[in-house]
Amino acid sequence: MNVTLSLLAVLVTLLGPLGLVMSAAPVAGQPVLVIVPPWADAGAIIAQAGGQEISPLRAAMATLAYAEAPDFVQRLHQQGAWAVRNGSFDTLFCGKFL
What we know:
Elements: H1 2-22, E1 32-35, H2 42-48, E2 52-53, E3 62-66, H3 72-79, E4 83-86, H4 90-94
Antiparallel strand pairs: 1-3, 1-4, 2-3
């Protein structure tokens, strides 16, 4: 029981800040994490919204994208994206810096 509580405390301590960063609102002119349905083509959604993919590899339902347009996030949603999150933190892991 004590081991379980200790592990939970460590996980909350380590993953809490990551959750806060990932939940930050997308900012115009910054990378975004685009989450799409499994049957959708993320690249096509991003291109139709006026952006470009910047991920070196695409995950099953998510990829990093970039566009300068202030309404890029809204256009991603209109094209079928399920969710759009601030992707600045993710670029550290993917080797892309803007």
